[in-house]
């Protein structure tokens, strides 16, 4: 890249796709990320993103054996399955249930990879991710799904908030808490998959949860949690891309590093404010 | 004349009746042989050791859980008709079951209740907000608190916000689950005064507590629970040595205050 002007680089298709990717990631980090914090299910994000990896591996395997299917669909199915396991488990068992499906998915992922060694790199790429390798097809799918999640979150905003705050009260006030819980957990799991190709399963947690966790410390009302989370994710992503332009480093890693650092500073800021 | 007849009928319908109710989460029944009647405008305390099924009983009354034997009726309606009874009952959950590790405002909390009653998908407007603020004032809180973070309020203020949320929908029956946990004595007294006012306006109140002492001078009846009803009636009839042993499995000393009320001294059972 060094022998190109910045302005030239900025209009390169791969760069434009990466920028679009960052914007979509920031929307997910704002909507699903904030609800992850409210509902207190951050472990689901780790579980879902790794289960998604197993789903993608399975679909790649199916492709090798003559049943071509988009790996992202497999990823979505497995992630949603994890959300349902989490929703089915009782409150005390949620984290254990997610942990076990996490472990099971990793076993499956490694099993599938061992069956298709020649294609293993395809699966590994989802573990690490690469913003610059996003294709137009990926972007269309991510845009469509992100838009859908946004609509669902807007439509059910109050219900999601109520069950996160006080599920007993929500039920008493007539909400179908179970149904909304499954819907919300699925929404979070789906968002985790939306970040998979761009930042990789390992870093999904950092990019989806850290911005909202940081903004939750700083914001003085709910609306600001969503706004700050969006801004933190967006800025982290852009800085990641900018730095990777000068140095040969992963933009996703820089972005995640920044987002998680902001979280720790926001903790400090809150302590200093004294609340 | 017609009006007089209606009024008579009104009085004859009891607020809550339970007949031979049994319920369990698994095989083992958590509650059994639950038969009682609570009349309109009564103020009843439900008490008993931890895990004795107090919260479960409230959930059965709310129709969140359904008995596997027997039936509960609220204002004459079976709890199976949830949409009928929902609008009659205001509920205040145990504060320990609430998670507010995010900047939810008092406004949000109260408006969620009003919104849920209206239909959670419908937008709430200025008029609803006005009602919410009225509810906050009615529990003796300052209007300023409306835009403050719920998590930053004191325990007593939080309880009163939850009470306001329950009252905003103008219920005929109010169910409160351990409203005094983490609440200082002055706030506790404020909540009690408020409940006394509500009763004068015709609201029936059921309150779960693990320590009945602060309530003794206010309530009409006590229900002593230990998976079944150990005793139900006037405080002095219920708080006998025999009943307390059967509920708590240990003798609890009883002292009598100047006004002649029996006060159990639980110190050994409740840490
Ligand atoms: N959702 C549940 N699933 C299984 N068991 C439960 C559930 N809720 C309560 N229990 C059990 O039922 C019993 C009564 O609980 P609860 O009604 O909460 O008691 P209390 O409110 O009197 O402390 C306890 O043994 C408790 O462990
Ligand atoms: Mg309880």
Topology:
The complex is a heterodimer of chains A (275) and B (271).
Chain A: H1 6-10, H2 13-39, H3 42-64, H4 71-88, H5 94-115, H6 120-128, H7 136-155, H8 157-165, H9 167-172, H10 177-194, H11 196-199, H12 201-218, H13 222-246, H14 251-273
Chain B: H1 2-12, E1 16-23, E2 31-38, E3 43-47, H2 54-62, E4 69-74, E5 77-78, H3 82-86, E6 89-92, H4 106-118, H5 126-138, H6 155-167, E7 173-177, H7 185-200, E8 204-208, E9 221-225, E10 229-233, H8 235-238, H9 241-248, E11 254-256, E12 262-264
Parallel strand pairs in B: 3-8, 3-9, 6-7, 7-8
Antiparallel strand pairs in B: 1-2, 1-4, 4-5, 9-10, 11-12
Helix pairs in contact in B: 4-5, 4-6, 5-6
The structure holds adenosine-5'-diphosphate and magnesium ion.
Descriptive report:
The complex is a heterodimer of chains A (275) and B (271). With 275 residues, chain A is an all-alpha fold. Chain A has one domain: Orthogonal Bundle (ABC transporter involved in vitamin B12 uptake, BtuC). In chain A, 83% of the residues lie in helices and 0% in strands. Chain A has helices at 6-10, 13-39, 42-64, 71-88, 94-115, 120-128, 136-155, 157-165, 167-172, 177-194, 196-199, 201-218, 222-246, 251-273. In chain A, α2 runs antiparallel to α13 (222-246) and α3 (42-64) packs parallel to α5. The radius of gyration of chain A is 19 Å and the shape is globular. Chain B is of the alpha/beta class and 271 residues long. Helices cover 34% and strands 22% of the residues of chain B. Chain B has helices at 2-12, 54-62, 82-86, 106-118, 126-138, 155-167, 185-200, 235-238, 241-248, and strands at residues 16-23, 31-38, 43-47, 69-74, 77-78, 89-92, 173-177, 204-208, 221-225, 229-233, 254-256, 262-264. A 6-stranded mixed sheet of chain B has the order 6-7-8-3-9-10, with helices on both faces. In chain B, β7 (173-177), α7 and β8 form a beta-alpha-beta unit. In chain B, α4 packs across α5. The N and C termini of chain B lie far apart (57 Å). The interface between A and B is medium-sized, with 29 and 34 residues. The complex binds adenosine-5'-diphosphate and magnesium ion. Magnesium ion (MG) binds next to α2 of chain B.
């Amino acid at each position: 890249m060094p022998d190109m002007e910045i302005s030239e680089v900025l209009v390169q298709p791969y760069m434009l796709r990466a920028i679009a990717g960052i914007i979509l990631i920031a929307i997910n980090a704002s909507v699903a990320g904030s609800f992850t914090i409210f509902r207190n299910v951050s472990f689901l994000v780790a579980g879902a993103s790794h289960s998604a990896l197993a789903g993608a591996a399975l679909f790649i395997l199916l492709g090798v054996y003559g049943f071509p299917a988009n790996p992202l669909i497999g990823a979505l199915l497995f992630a949603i399955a994890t959300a349902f396991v989490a929703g089915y488990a009782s409150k005390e068992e949620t984290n254990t249930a997610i942990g076990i499906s996490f472990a099971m998915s990793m076993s499956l992922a490694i099993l599938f990879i061992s069956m298709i060694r020649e294609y293993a790199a395809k699966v590994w790429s989802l573990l690490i991710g690469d913003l610059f390798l996003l294709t137009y097809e990926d972007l269309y799918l991510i845009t469509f799904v992100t838009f859908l999640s946004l609509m669902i979150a807007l439509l059910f905003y109050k219900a999601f908030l109520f069950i996160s705050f006080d599920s007993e009260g929500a039920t008493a006030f007539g909400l179908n808490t179970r149904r909304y819980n499954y819907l919300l957990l699925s929404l979070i799991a789906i968002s985790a998959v939306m970040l998979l190709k761009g930042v990789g399963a390992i870093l999904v947690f950092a990019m989806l949860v850290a911005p909202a966790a940081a903004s939750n410390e700083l914001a003085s009302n709910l609306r600001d949690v969503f706004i700050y989370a969006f801004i933190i994710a967006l800025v982290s992503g852009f800085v990641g891309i900018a730095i990777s332009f000068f140095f040969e480093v992963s933009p996703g890693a820089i972005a995640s590093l920044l987002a998680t650092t902001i979280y720790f500073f926001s903790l400090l800021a809150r302590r200093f404010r004294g609340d | 004349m017609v009006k007089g007849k209606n009024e008579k009928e009104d009085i004859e319908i009891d607020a809550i009746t339970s007949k031979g109710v049994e319920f369990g989460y698994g095989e083992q029944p958590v509650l059994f042989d639950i038969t009682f009647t609570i009349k309109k405008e009564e103020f009843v305390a439900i008490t008993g050791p931890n895990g004795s099924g107090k919260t479960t009983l409230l959930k059965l009354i709310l129709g969140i859980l359904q008995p596997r034997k027997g039936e509960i009726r609220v204002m004459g309606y079976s709890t199976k008709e949830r949409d009928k009874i929902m609008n009659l009952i205001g509920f205040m959950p145990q504060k320990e079951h609430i998670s507010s590790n995010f900047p939810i405002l008092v406004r949000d909390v109260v408006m969620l209740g009003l919104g849920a009653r209206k239909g959670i998908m419908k937008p709430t407007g200025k008029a609803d907000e006005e009602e919410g603020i009225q509810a906050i004032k009615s529990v003796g809180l300052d209007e300023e608190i409306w835009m403050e973070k719920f998590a930053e309020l004191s325990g007593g203020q939080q309880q009163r916000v939850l009470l306001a949320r329950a009252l905003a929908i103008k219920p005929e029956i109010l169910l409160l689950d351990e409203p005094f946990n983490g609440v200082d004595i002055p706030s506790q007294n404020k909540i009690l005064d408020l409940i006394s006012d509500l009763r004068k306006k015709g609201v029936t109140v059921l309150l779960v507590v693990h320590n009945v002492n602060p309530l003794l001078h206010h309530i009409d009846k006590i229900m002593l629970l230990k998976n079944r009803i150990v005793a139900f009636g006037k405080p002095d009839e219920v708080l006998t040595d025999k009943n307390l042993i059967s509920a708590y499995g240990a003798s609890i000393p009883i002292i009598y205050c100047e006004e002649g009320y029996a006060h159990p001294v639980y110190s050994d059972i409740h840490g």
